[in-house]
Amino acid sequence: MVNRTRILVLLPVLVFLGIAGAFLWGLYFGNAREVPSALIGRPAPQFDLAPLAEGAERFATADLMQGEASIVNVWASWCVPCRAEHELLMEIRERGLAPLYGLNYKNDPEDARAFLDELGDPFDKVGVDRNGRTGIDWGVYGVPETFVVDGAGRIVYKHIGPLVPGDIEGKILPALEKARATPPQG
């Protein structure tokens, strides 16, 4: 009877230690940027967004289905990591690696335009996702996030968080190569 009571008392402690150990393992050995996306290998969500710049063309799903791999960056002017990664987006543009599209997420368009006026505009097109609905459809849960899309409009890679030095060569270029090697479906 005493052993059974002792086991019942220790059981919650052992469960707690097991859960705490799992969290600590994830914290120190896991990689939050490697969260799998359910959209990898699937068509980009349908969207049609108003342009950020007056007189510019709308940014829509059809832009991602032109037979050429492309990059979609989700950003906002209020996002400090977006400012930090912006220099790398400018590098992608300068190197002509692929069409680069911006999805301006939950942002005042005037603030977004001021951000690009200050830092430079690397984007071929920027769509305004003021209420965040398109971002939700893309599985975005924070900015910045960067996607590589193949020429048929399928998402082949998702990068969570800001791009940092080394990510272009180590992640974006390999994803673009994969996107370019992916045969069209349809």
From TrEMBL:
Any one GO BP annotation for this protein: cytochrome complex assembly
GO-annotated cellular components: outer membrane-bounded periplasmic space
Keyword Membrane: yes
Start and end residues of each Thioredoxin domain: 38-181
Keywords: Cytochrome c-type biogenesis, Disulfide bond, Membrane, Redox-active center, Transmembrane, Transmembrane helix
Transmembrane segments: 7-28
One annotated GO molecular function: disulfide oxidoreductase activity
Domain of life, source organism: Bacteria
Cellular localization per UniProt: Cell envelope
InterPro entries: Periplasmic_diS_OxRdtase_DsbE (IPR004799), Redoxin (IPR013740), Thioredoxin-like_sf (IPR036249), Thioredoxin_CS (IPR017937), Thioredoxin_domain (IPR013766), Thioredoxin_ResA/DsbE_sf (IPR050553)
Similarity section: Belongs to the thioredoxin family. DsbE subfamily.
The protein's name: DsbE family thiol:disulfide interchange protein
